[in-house]
Design a protein that fits this description.
Strand content: over 45%
Order of helices and strands: EEEEEEEEEEE
Number of helices: 0
Oligomer: single chain
Shape: globular
Radius of gyration: 13 Å
Distance between the termini: 40 Å
Length: 124
């Protein structure tokens, strides 16, 4: 059973940066499309960014130009570099994995594995 563990969340001032990491185990990481989702209190979960097994990327309009998703298959790790953070970016951030998808996956129902989440809080 695959496992995903996020890290790197925390408290940061508006305009600051954070880099989230997602360490994968017990799965063939390079064969999975990956995604970062977030959920703020009282709001629905939303896709922030996604990357295919081949490296193609997708970003939500709200984070384009500020966030960068990347993967390092040799380390079984997914990253989300977040710059110019805003208070509205405050949420629990989750990574997710979808098997055998050499394309970007934007449908949450297609993701098989989910991490436990890491809290990101941006103060104004």
């Amino acid at each position: 059973q695959g496992q995903l563990v996020e890290s790197g969340g925390g408290l940061v001032q508006a305009g600051g940066s954070l880099r989230l990491s997602c360490a994968a185990s017990a799965l063939t990481f390079g064969s999975y499309a990956m995604g970062w989702y977030r959920q703020a209190p009282g709001k629905e979960r939303e896709l922030v960014a996604a990357v295919s097994s081949g490296g193609s990327t997708y970003y939500a309009d709200s984070v384009k130009g500020r966030f960068t998703i990347s993967r390092q298959n040799a380390k079984n790790t997914l990253y989300l570099q977040m710059n110019s953070l805003k208070p509205e970016n405050t949420a629990v951030y989750y990574c997710a994995a979808a098997l055998g998808r050499n394309r970007v996956v934007t449908d949450a129902n297609l993701y098989t594995y989910w991490g436990q989440g890491t809290q990101v809080t941006v103060s104004s």
